[in-house]
Inverse folding.
């Protein structure tokens, strides 16, 4: 999936993350209508997700939420993990790399 329909702040952050961490960072967008948020994943760890939003944030600052596998390995929604209210780009890249095993 591409991020062409997203706000420029999201598109540029995804491009910068892929430039820094490689093409293993893939988009998993569950919010087509939300122009300021997107989900990321890595095929090697499909149960792990990182969502970030640029809505009402300073440039290059993000709200980030980490998600893990559903409890018990079922098909239930992913388990909500840590949330970070104000992360700069370097912090976002570190969180994505660590959580997605990159």
């Amino acid at each position: 999936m591409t991020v062409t329909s997203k706000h420029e702040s999201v598109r540029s952050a995804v491009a910068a993350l892929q430039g820094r961490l490689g093409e293993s960072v893939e988009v998993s967008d569950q919010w087509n209508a939300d122009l300021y948020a997107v989900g990321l994943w890595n095929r090697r760890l499909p149960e792990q997700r990182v969502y970030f939003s640029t809505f009402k944030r300073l440039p290059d600052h993000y709200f980030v939420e980490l998600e893990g596998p559903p409890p018990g390995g079922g098909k239930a929604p992913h388990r909500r993990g840590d949330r970070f209210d104000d992360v700069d780009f370097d912090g976002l890249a570190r969180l994505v790399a660590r959580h997605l095993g990159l």
About this structure: The longest helix spans residues 8-21. The CA atoms of residues 62 and 87 lie 5 Å apart. Residues 8-99 form one domain. The chain has one domain: 8-99.
